[in-house]
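Take one record.
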Amino acid sequence: MIENDSYSKFKLQSVHMIKAIEGEQHDFGTCFAIGEKHVVTAQHVVKGYNEYYLFSSYDDYKVNNKVELKLISQFSDENLDFSILEVVDDGICLIPIGVCESILLSKGLDIDMCGYPREKKSHATVTSFVTEDLRMVKKNKFSFELAKGVNVQNYKGMSGSPVLYKGYAIGYVVVQSSGNLLYAISFSEVLDKYHELKSECSINMASQEEVNFIPDACPNTPLRIDYTDKNTKPSISGLNIGFDFDEWREKDLIESSINWIIDYALTPIQKEAYHANPNYIEKNKIVWNDLPDRIENNLPNLLLHIAIRKHYKTIPIVNSVLTLKKENHFSCSHVIINNGKLEIWLGVSTFELNIKEAVSDVVEKINSIIIGSTLKERLILINNSVNASFPLKGRLSKLGNNELDISARVDRIVIPVFISHNSDVISIYDKEKFDTKFKDEVISCKSYFTEMHTNCNSVIDIKIFHFPARCTDTLSEKFEKKVKGMKAFFK
């Protein structure tokens, strides 16, 4: 099982093996998703073949778990060594990488790569740098030159791999030299020639300001994503806290969650004041005596907040989200910039004893806030001021204009769902079988959810965060005791 946190900048879940076939002949390479239905690879990987298949991972390749692709001939270019292929199955959705065409490819620029070299018989992640910008050389068909990484010797099989800068695709690998260099083509050159690519293939385009935007620093936490299934909607991510020294890291989770309360409960202006105050006792007295009522009972809401902040680019501008009746049904609210899209995330969460009760509870909560398609008309956003460091400042300034429909202010409404329950997979830990059992538990949660949640809404996107636990009551009790202790200390 891949720990996603460790591979986030390499976008491993968006990078796949591709196999091209013609009769008895075949070739392998790497491809990566630039939209939910489209992948990019080097044209020489697929040239001369008439069948194309994607394998999400090397394990999927070994068991022949394949996804059929079709070549889009109008976007197959020999000079750019570039091809786009489309997923045939309407029910399958890929996880796209944001594409940025505006990053300056300067000599020495740090980059990352991810692909499937044949020598590895697995994925390979490579950290390297740009050695030359070749776009000024008209007789050279490559955009830039890269140094090879130390962990791969022969890059055969990595043709079509993304060249990544801060987790965004700026180009793709096409060839290796006989020495220590690789050559790549930039997306700026591709999109200069094929303007229509952005719309016809629904490419997830990211601006330079998004790429360079760094969200506020957040505390550490053992909570991490260990498995994700986004092939079909809704997407689901399985969370766990790690098993060390013969026990789950529950103590670390509770201790770190106390530090997260500042991040969760305070408005952006309040957080600025808190961090600017050098008097530790004074500022914590202010915070712990002014926290929302019953925050000690809000652990599931806090854990959802942690999962979102750890894995997405959040912009701290929305203080709260209310309905027209001035009600707040949401466990947390975030504005997120996601591959060029501005999204409002409105969370719901639950702690229950078993998986079916947990799923039933969040489905009931979702149904209570989604009334037909009117949610987009029922939201009032109470905003903080737009900081000069924020990306998309023009659009962010409109967020607080509650005379506008929410759909005129954001590109997408997302409901992140936090589901936690007691699980034998966690309470009866089996090191040898854990990865398989954990994956099966997450898939079961998704199956129960799709069975129970039939009120589908094209306006809303649902993302599930699933946290099987040893005992939810024990976690809640420990958190409540810790929070009450902090309140008493700073009283």
Summary: The radius of gyration is 24 Å. The first strand starts at residue 15 and ends at 22.
